[in-house]
Structures are given as C-alpha cells and as structure tokens.
Amino acid sequence: MSRLTFFFKRLIRMDWRRMWETTALLRERSGKSRLWLLSDMLFCALKYNAGYMDYKIAEMYNLNDAQRKTVITRGISNSIVRRMNDKAYWHFFDDKAQFNMLFKEYIPRKWLLIGPNTPPDELEKLCEGQTQLIGKPLEGSSGQGIQKYTSDDWRSGPKAFLKRLEADSIGILEEMVVQHPEMARLCPTSVNTCRIATLMGERKQGIVYAFLRIGNGKVMDNVDCGGMAARIDLDSGKLLTVGADKAGNRYEKHPITGTEIIGFTIPYWEEAKAMCMEAAKKVPQMRFVAWDVAITESGPTFIEGNSFPSHAVPQFAAHYPDGIGILPEFRKFIDV
Known about the structure:
Layout: H1 3-13, H2 16-30, H3 34-48, H4 52-57, H5 65-68, H6 74-84, H7 91-94, H8 96-102, E1 111-113, H9 120-127, E2 132-136, E3 147-150, H10 158-167, E4 172-175, H11 181-184, E5 194-200, E6 205-214, E7 228-231, E8 243-245, E9 250-251, H12 269-279, E10 288-296, E11 299-306, H13 327-331
Antiparallel strand pairs: 1-4, 2-3, 2-4, 5-6, 5-10, 6-7, 7-8, 8-9, 10-11
Helix pairs in contact: 1-3, 2-3
C-alpha cells in the first residue's frame, strides 16, 4: 500500500474529535499552536504514515526530518507485518488455546478451554488446590476481557462457575503465573512481562527489540491498562531507559514500590532469548512475532505470542533520548 493510499484511507476513518483533543494536550506540552500542530500532524501522516497517536507517543513535534524517518509509525509497522506474516497462519497466535497447544513445551501451567462442551468435572479438577485463576477471551489484545477469579467464584460448584465464565465471555481458564520475586520487586500486582520481538529477515535473523512491561497497580502490565514499559538491553538483560506510559509520563523509580528502573536486570535473560528464538522457528510463515514472556523462579514461560505486534511501545519518545527511533534496528534485518 502506497503512502498516499494509506493516508487517504486513514483520513476517511479519522476520529477528528480525538485528533483535535490531542492537539490541545500537545499545545500544553510543546508550546506550539493547535493550528501548527494539526498541520504538522497531517504532514507527518502523508510523509511518514504516522497517525495522530504516533505523533503524540513519539513526540514527533520535537523531531527533525532525519529523526522522524527513524520512527516506526503505524503505516510502516502494518506494512512490515503484512510482508513478514502470512495471514493464513495468524490463528496459531490469535487463538490462545491453539497457541498454548502449539507451544506447550514452554507453557507448563494448567489450562482449560471454556465453552458449552466443557466438562464440569474437568473445570473442578483445574480449580482443585487453587486460590486464583486467570480467565481470558480466546481472541483479543491489550488485556481486554481478562479477569482474575478467586476460590469464592467457584465455591458454588463447577456448573455455576462454568455459567459465570461463559457469561463473562471467557474462552480459556489458566493457572496464575507466579513471577520471580525479583520481577515482583518492580510491581507485585501484575505479572511484569518481557515483550521480545523476533524477526526472521532476509539480512539477519534474531531479536529486533525487547521491552519490559511493568504494571502500575492493576492486574495487567499492558500499557493500554495504565502500565509502563522500559527498553531492555539485548546483550545484558538490563533496563536501559526510564519507564514510560502511553500518557507520556516517565518514571525513574516505580511510583508504587520505589524500585529503580534503569539498570534493573531481568533474571533468566539468556534463557528467555533462547526460548523465543527456538519458538520462532515453529511456524516459518510467521517471521515477525512479539512474544510476551513471564519470568518465574524456574525460568521463562510464554504468556502469548502476537501475530500483529503493536508498534506503540517501540516508539515511546522516552526510550530514545537522542530522537533516533527503532527503525534503524529493523533495517539490520529487512529493507524498510
């Protein structure tokens, strides 16, 4: 899809009200007029395939032309996914039950498919000895529809609990992942996961980027649920940057636990990388996958894999203090 075609398609579907509201926020941050910002947004949409959220998150109003060319905008990200991932194979990642079955050697936790044909005795067996379970829709992203259940929820028996799960549109019920104590030191309310993106490119194959997603008091660590992210050094597993959230807030220390973010080291980092690279070869038609990895006391485990990796976290301005974005990293693997 050409830049001009992408621009006009986005123009037709644009939420102009939210775009105008965004200019008000950015006027306060940048000191520039709303008219200038709106004009510059449209310019960036045409030249760099950037949506207004790209413009906001990457703080493109502060960047020169050379810097803007290094931002992985929505249009560029979409084109990479379409090129690298055969849509006929997305279902292995989009359906959480299929993902758990295909990558079962990396997922030791117990889980159960929930639906009209789920045997109540199987549900009862899963609940035995558990105090908490996590329920998820079979498909979906950004943490939408995910719920935590406690023993109080299944106290009335498996049949009643099954009705509750179906009413909540839960498609899969899993044991809770217990994260490594070091990871809990950052934020204990959520499982803080590593987003590790593998790219099997023509020039090079490997990990193109990694970020740690950190919760901020909620059950989920996802940035769409108020969480933050910090960039991980691929060699050492140390956090290179401050934590940053989608609202543009920056944190040197976690606001709840006070844990220092820059320099924090991910346990089992080499094992996590090796797991992702091994898994990346299972479906060769999927050449660009973002893996969500939890770190437990016994090592890394998958939470899920993403067939259409979000481009939001890899473009947070806080992660690139020199204004040079992540696109040069992609160019080591593929032509962009």
